[in-house]
Amino acid sequence: MTPNLLTLARILTAFGAVALFSLRPHLLAVDLTAVLLTVTAMLLDGLDGYLARVRGLATPFGAKFDILGDRLVENLFFTCFAASGLISLWVPVLFFARGALTDFLRGLASRPRGNVGDQEWMAKTGWGRSLVASRASRASYATLKCMCFCYLGLLLSIRHGPDALSHGWFGESRALTIAQAITLATVVFCIARAIPVIWEGRRYFSARPKAPRTVPVAASR
């Protein structure tokens, strides 16, 4: 099993979870299965990178494929829950825009420079690395997204379940409040992790184009 295959498995697992969450009518057993697939997809997110580091299988393609998997999984779940009316449409729009911008800036930063093949990477500052690339930040962000996806998925069953679920602690109004709080926390963390990349990528928007080199023309005799 290679890291790229694990990334592919993560994407397919996420598709399976979203497909089950989207089934009508909503059944608790089906949504619980989708929750298990969601947890599996999030675990695979950390496993592919770990396997790449331990076995020395990290490649530029694998790194970009892993980021692609992140974007697909995020937008799959948030689009599904926005279409279900659980969250605002602006949530998947924000995640899409944030991912497009940060990936664009990282693409500019990873271009070979000159003839020596050196690469200029983002998150050079200590605070940027801590917020974007540290294991604690990655694990916290993945855990928060997993909680958000699982809770929103179970909320689908609560909304369409027996009347007993419409009252008390598991009532729809209270459950929606909790869902909004978890979603907001996920959105805030998402934006916070994008700040270092955008801050360090600002130089690409203010950079002045270099004047073309002119080659003197030898005077004719």
How would you sum up this structure, described in words?
The chain has eight helices and two strands, in the order ααααββαααα. It is 71% helix and 2% strand. It is mostly helical and 221 residues long. The protein has one domain: Four Helix Bundle (Hemerythrin (Met), subunit A) (Up-down Bundle), CATH 1.20.120. Strands 1-2 form a two-stranded antiparallel ribbon.
What brief labels describe this structure?
221 residues, mainly alpha, Four Helix Bundle (Hemerythrin (Met), subunit A), 8 helices, 2% strand, globular
Amino- and carboxy-terminal Cα gap: 70 Å
DSSP E strands, number:
2
Report strand order across the widest sheet.
1-2
Helix content: over 70%
- How many domains? 1
The helix/strand series, from N terminus to C terminus, equals: HHHHEEHHHH
Number of helices: 8
- CATH architecture name: Up-down Bundle
Overall geometric form: globular
* CATH domain fold name: Four Helix Bundle (Hemerythrin (Met), subunit A)
